[in-house]
Design goal:
The complex is a heterodimer of chains A (198) and B (532). Chain A has three helices and nine strands. By secondary structure, chain A is α+β, with helices and mostly antiparallel strands. In chain A, strands 3-1-9-5-7 form a five-stranded mixed beta sheet, with helices on one face. Chain A starts with a helix and ends with a helix. Chain B is built from 18 helices and no strands. In chain B, helix 14 (355-378) packs parallel to helix 17 (426-452). The longest helix of chain B has 36 residues, at 73-108. Chain B starts with a helix and ends in a 36-residue tail after the last helix. Classes of the chains: A alpha+beta (198), B mainly alpha (532). The interface between A and B is large, with 51 and 49 residues.
Chain lengths: 198, 532
C-alpha cells in the first residue's frame, strides 16, 4: 500500500502533541498485556484448581481415581449406610451394563464386594470406560474403592460378556447425616480414542 | 462522518493544516483517526443489530403460533445461538467501543486515542470475525446450534461441525475487544489534559475506564475456554469430557467466570451515557458523582464473585448456593445507589424531554425492571422454577435492550449534532422513541408471565396455553424490529442535512466536547485545553 507522506505527517503531529506522555504508553501497554496473558493462563489454571477444589469439597461427586488399601480402624456397627448402585449408558454405546444387586447395607469400615454385569451387544469390538460419581457429592471423599473395574478400560469383543468386581468400604468418618449413598456409573464408548492413541 | 465532514476544512483555534484525509474507501481502511474509527464501530454495530434482529424476526415468526411452521428445530437452535452471539459481541460491545472512540478523547481533551494504528486494526478484524461466524450458515453443517453459551458437551461431543468456525470467530472478537480495551485504558491514563484529575473526569470516561479493565481481565478467560472447547472437539483432550476424566460442569464454571463480568461490560458504559444525558436535561450537576464512581468500581469487583448464580441447578452444595445468592443480591446495593442518584439528579431539576432524555428516563425505569427480575433470579430457591424459562429471557432482554441499547440511543441522539453538525429530525426521533417504547414492552413484558407459567427457552414449539401471549410477543417483536428502521432514517437524514447545530445544542450540557465546533473538526485538541 502506498502511504502518502501527508498521512505520515499527520501522524507525527499527533505524536508530538502527546510526546510528554509518549514514553509511558509502552509501559502501560506492557503492564496491561501482562494482565491479558496472566488471565489467559489463569483460565487454564482453573482446570487443576477445580480438581483440587472438588477433591477437598467433593463438589462434583468424583471419587478417588486410584485404588486405596484398607486403612479404617475397626467397623462402626452402630451405623448402617445404604449404598445404591445405578448405571447408565452414554449416548451410542450398545452395551448392557447393570449392577448385579441394586443396593447393599454396610456398616462404615466394613469391606464389601459387589459385581457389575456388562455385555457387548453389538457385532464389533468396543472399549468401554465406566466413570463413577457419588451422590451426595459431600460423601464422595468417604467412599473408598480397594478394587474397581473403573480403574482400567473395559475392552469387550462382539457379543462378549463379563462380570466386573468392585471392592469398597465407607469411611467411618462419614458425616452422620448421610445415611444413603448412590454410586452411579456412566459408561462411555472410548474405542475411537484408544485406537487413535495406540 | 460523511461528505459534510469530508469537505470541512474549518480547523479549530491555532491549527493551520489540512485534514490529510484520503478519499473514498482508503480513508476508512487506513484511518487512524479516532472519530473515523468511532464512526466505523457505530455503523458496524448498527448493521449487526439489524442482522441479529433479522434472525430474531425469524425466531418470533416461528413462535407466532404453536407447532412447527417455518423452520426446523435444528435451524431454530442455530438462529437463537447466532442471534445471541451477534447481539452480544457484534451489536452491544462494538457499539460502546464506538462511543468510547468518538467521545473519550474529546471529553478528556486529548488529540486522539493513545494507540491509533492498533485502533484501526482492532476495528478492521471485526468484520472478518462476523464474516466467519455468519458464513457457517451457508455450510453443510450449519451455523453453531449450541446456544451462545456453548455449553460442553453440546459444543464438543454433540457439535454439528461448526465448532471450529465458532471458536475462531470468538478468538478474533476477543482479540479485537482486548486491543480496544487496552487502547481505552492507555488513553485515559496517559492522555488527559493538564488539570484533568481522575476525579474530574466525566462519569462516562470513568465507566469506560473500569469496563476496559474488566475486558482486559475476562476476555482472555473466554479465549482460554473456547480454546479448550476446540481441543476437546478436534484434538482429543478431555477438559470437559467425562469419559476422559474431565468434567462438563467445569465448563460452566469457567465460562461464567468470564460471562458474569461480561454482563457488566455491557451495562457499565450504559450507566456512563445516562449519567451524562440526565444531568444535561435536568440542568443540574450529577447527584453524587463520587458515589457513582465507587458504585461502578464495586459492581465491577462484585461481578467476579457471583458467576455460579447462573448454575444453581447444577447440584452445588448448599453453602455454595447461599454464598453466590448473597453476593449476587449485594450487587443490588451499588446498582441502587446509581438508580437513586439518577432520580435525585432529576429531582427538582428543570427537566425538558428531548429524545435523548426520553430514552434516558425509559432506561432508568426499564433497566430497573430488569434489575428487579434479576434479584428474583438471584434467589436460589425460586431460581429452580425460573431457570431456563422465558423469565430469564425477559430479564436479560430488559437489561440489554431497554438497558444497554436504549442508553446507546440516548447517547446517539445526544451527540448526533456533534457528530454530523445537524440536528436530527425531532418528529421522526419522537416516532422512533414512542414506537420502540411501546413495542419493546409488548415484546418482552409478557415473557415474564410465560416464564413463570413454565415456558422453556430455546424451544421452537410450545404448549397450547402459551399461544395468546406468544402471539402478542411476536407482534411486539415485529413492531420493535421495524421501529429501528426509523432510527436508520433519522441518522441518514441527519447526516445529509437538517437544521445546523451550534457548538453546544443543549443548554444544560457540560463537558469539553461542547467547546469544539459542530460537526467536530477532524482534529480536536491538538493543543490541550486548560481545565481548572
Amino acid at each position: 500500500m502506498d502511504k502518502s507522506p501527508k498521512q505520515e505527517l499527520n501522524h507525527e503531529e499527533l505524536q508530538t502533541v502527546t510526546s510528554s506522555s509518549k514514553s509511558t504508553h509502552g509501559q502501560v501497554v506492557k503492564k496491561l498485556l501482562l494482565i491479558v496473558f496472566g488471565m489467559f493462563g489463569f483460565g487454564f489454571a482453573l482446570v487443576p484448581l477445580y480438581d483440587v477444589f472438588c477433591d477437598i469439597t467433593g463438589l462434583n461427586g468424583k471419587t478417588n481415581g486410584t485404588a486405596v488399601s484398607y486403612t479404617a480402624d475397626g467397623v462402626d456397627t452402630s451405623r448402617t449406610v445404604t449404598v445404591q448402585f445405578i448405571t447408565r449408558m452414554a449416548k451410542g454405546i450398545p452395551w448392557q451394563f447393570e449392577p448385579v444387586i441394586n443396593e447393599v447395607d454396610v456398616h462404615p469400615g466394613e469391606v464389601k464386594f459387589v459385581n457389575f454385569y456388562a455385555k457387548n451387544e453389538s457385532m464389533r469390538d468396543i472399549v468401554g470406560q465406566a466413570v463413577p460419581s457419588v451422590s451426595p457429592g459431600m460423601a464422595a471423599g468417604y467412599f473408598q474403592k480397594i478394587e474397581c473395574f473403573c480403574f482400567t478400560q473395559q475392552p469387550l469383543k462382539a457379543n462378549e460378556d463379563v462380570e466386573m468386581g468392585l471392592q469398597f468400604y465407607v469411611d467411618v468418618d462419614l458425616p452422620p447425616e448421610i445415611t444413603t449413598l448412590t454410586l452411579s456409573y456412566t459408561l462411555y464408548d472410548i474405542t475411537g480414542s484408544v485406537d487413535s492413541s495406540s | 462522518m460523511t461528505t459534510d465532514t469530508l469537505n470541512d476544512h474549518d480547523s479549530h483555534e491555532g491549527e493551520h493544516h489540512d485534514d490529510h484525509k484520503m478519499t473514498g474507501i482508503k480513508r476508512w481502511l487506513y484511518t487512524t483517526n479516532h472519530k473515523d474509527i468511532g464512526t466505523l464501530y457505530l455503523w458496524f454495530s448498527f448493521i449487526m443489530l439489524l442482522t441479529g434482529g433479522a434472525l430474531a424476526m425469524v425466531i418470533r415468526a416461528e413462535l407466532f403460533q404453536p407447532g412447527l411452521q417455518i423452520v426446523e428445530p435444528d435451524f431454530f437452535n442455530q438462529l437463537t445461538t447466532v442471534h445471541g452471539l451477534i447481539m452480544v459481541f457484534g451489536a452491544i460491545m462494538p457499539g460502546f467501543v464506538g462511543f468510547a472512540n468518538w467521545m473519550i478523547p474529546m471529553m478528556i481533551g486529548a488529540p486522539d486515542m493513545a494507540l491509533p494504528r492498533m485502533n484501526n486494526w482492532s476495528f478492521w478484524i471485526l468484520p472478518f470475525a462476523f464474516g466467519i461466524l455468519l458464513s457457517s450458515f451457508f455450510m453443510e453443517s450449519g451455523a453453531p446450534n449450541f446456544g451462545w453459551t456453548f455449553y460442553a458437551p453440546l459444543s464438543t461431543t454433540y457439535s454439528n461441525g461448526s465448532t471450529a468456525f465458532f471458536v475462531f470467530a470468538v478468538h478474533i472478537m476477543g482479540i479485537s475487544s482486548i486491543m480496544g480495551a487496552i487502547n481505552i485504558v492507555v488513553t485515559i491514563m496517559n492522555m488527559r489534559a493538564p488539570g484533568m484529575t481522575y476525579m474530574k473526569m466525566p462519569l462516562f470516561v470513568w465507566t469506560f475506564f473500569i469496563t476496559g479493565y474488566l475486558l482486559i481481565a475476562v476476555m482472555p478467560i473466554l479465549a482460554g475456554v473456547v480454546t479448550m472447547v476446540l481441543t476437546d472437539t478436534y484434538f482429543g483432550t478431555s477438559f470437559f469430557n467425562a469419559a476422559g476424566g474431565g468434567d462438563p460442569v467445569m465448563f460452566q464454571h469457567i465460562f461464567w467466570f468470564f460471562g458474569h463480568p461480561e454482563v457488566y461490560i455491557m451495562i457499565l458504559p450504559a450507566f456512563g451515557i445516562v449519567s451524562t444525558t440526565i444531568p444535561a436535561f435536568s440542568r443540574k450537576k450529577l447527584f453524587g458523582y463520587s458515589s457513582m464512581v465507587y458504585a461502578t468500581a464495586s459492581i465491577a469487583f462484585l461481578s467476579f464473585i457471583v458467576w455460579a448464580h447462573h448454575m444453581f441447578t447444577t447440584g452445588m452444595p448448599l453453602f455454595g448456593e447461599l454464598f453466590f445468592m448473597y453476593c449476587t443480591m449485594l450487587i443490588a446495593v451499588p446498582t441502587g445507589v446509581k438508580v437513586f442518584n439518577w432520580v435525585a439528579t432529576m429531582w427538582r431539576g428543570s427537566l425538558t424531554f428531548e429524545t435523548p432524555m426520553l430514552f434516558s428516563i425509559a432506561f432508568v425505569i426499564l433497566f430497573t425492571i430488569g434489575g428487579f427480575s434479576g434479584l428474583m433470579l438471584a434467589l436460589t430457591p425460586v431460581d429452580f422454577q425460573y431457570h431456563d424459562t422465558y423469565f430469564v429471557v425477559a430479564h436479560f432482554h430488559y437489561v440489554l435492550v431497554t438497558g444497554s441499547l436504549f442508553s446507546m440511543y440516548a447517547g446517539a441522539y445526544y451527540w448526533m449534532p456533534k457528530w454530523t453538525g445537524h440536528m436530527y429530525n425531532k418528529t421522526l426521533a419522537s416516532w422512533h422513541f414512542w414506537c420502540s417504547l411501546i413495542s419493546v414492552n409488548l415484546l418482552f413484558f409478557p415473557m415474564h408471565f410465560l416464564g413463570l407459567a413454565g415456558m422453556p427457552r430455546r424451544i421452537p414449539d410450545y404448549a397450547l396455553q402459551f399461544a395468546d401471549f406468544n402471539k402478542w410477543v411476536s407482534i411486539g417483536g415485529f413492531a420493535f424490529g421495524l421501529s429501528q428502521l426509523i432510527f436508520l432514517a433519522v441518522v441518514i437524514k441527519c447526516i445529509r442535512g437538517g437544521e445546523k447545530a451550534p457548538a453546544k445544542p443543549w443548554d444544560g450540557a457540560e463537558g469539553l466536547e461542547w467547546t469544539v465546533a459542530s460537526p467536530a473538526p477532524y482534529h480536536t485538541f491538538s493543543t490541550p485545553p486548560k481545565i481548572d
